[in-house]
Design a protein that fits this description.
5 strands, alpha+beta, elongated, 8 helices, 208 residues, single chain
């Protein structure tokens, strides 16, 4: 079923992708999204330059549980499905470790706007009064569009098409920057190992 959906998605044009965005982002099998995730204190504003040289330490001595807790603490779980948990706002990243290198995974978290898949791009709508509204289009009707500015909040904006002067794709990812700034260096390395593992506690990086 996943392969059939992927094949169908490649045949969609931009208009179809926009109108079907909420459906395309919904997994075929529902996943649970944990609630009441404890807020974390700021640790450090990490940079790629600091962390990339440490990535060779992901291969051994990592902690599955700490990696999972880092996935929750950095709030990745709110938007991304990973195995049987996670939201559907962003891409399913269960198999991300099979497709991307450690550096790619780290960069995708730290610089999410570098590459934004078409189906997860926000739009920027400018109205006649000069205001700009950024978000994901939930519905595109004959006379109006319904925009959701924050994918984690239920608030919506209805904009009459007669009031729209410009509509562009946003170059910025809906995914915020700085998510790793609430994690320690060791937690970040555990998180990368967790993402590589596909959710398996038997992954070699977790073996002593």
């Amino acid at each position: 079923l996943e392969d059939i959906r992927k094949d169908a998605m490649t045949a969609l044009n931009d208009t179809e992708r926009t109108s079907l965005a909420s459906l395309l982002a919904t997994p075929l099998v529902a996943a649970s999204v944990p609630t009441n995730i404890p807020a974390r204190a700021f640790v450090k504003e990490w940079t790629m330059k600091e962390l990339v040289p440490q990535l060779d330490q992901v291969s051994k001595g990592r902690s599955f549980e700490k990696g999972k807790n880092a996935f929750l603490g950095a709030q990745c779980v709110l938007c991304h499905r990973f195995g049987s948990i996670g939201g559907a706002v962003g891409p399913d990243i269960t198999a991300a470790g099979n497709r991307y290198t450690r550096t790619d995974l780290l960069e995708a978290i730290m610089d999410p706007s570098k590459v934004v898949p078409d189906m997860f791009q926000n739009v920027v709508i400018t109205t006649r009064d000069g205001e700009e509204h950024t978000g994901r289009i939930l519905t595109d009707e004959a006379t109006k569009v319904v925009l959701q500015p924050n994918p984690l909040q239920p608030a919506k904006i209805e904009i009459l098409k007669s009031n729209i002067t410009k509509q562009d794709r946003s170059k910025l990812s809906p995914m915020p920057e700085g998510l790793l700034n609430v994690l320690s260096r060791e937690e970040i390395l555990d998180l990368i190992a967790y993402l590589e593992s596909g959710g398996s506690p038997n992954y070699p990086s977790f073996q002593k």
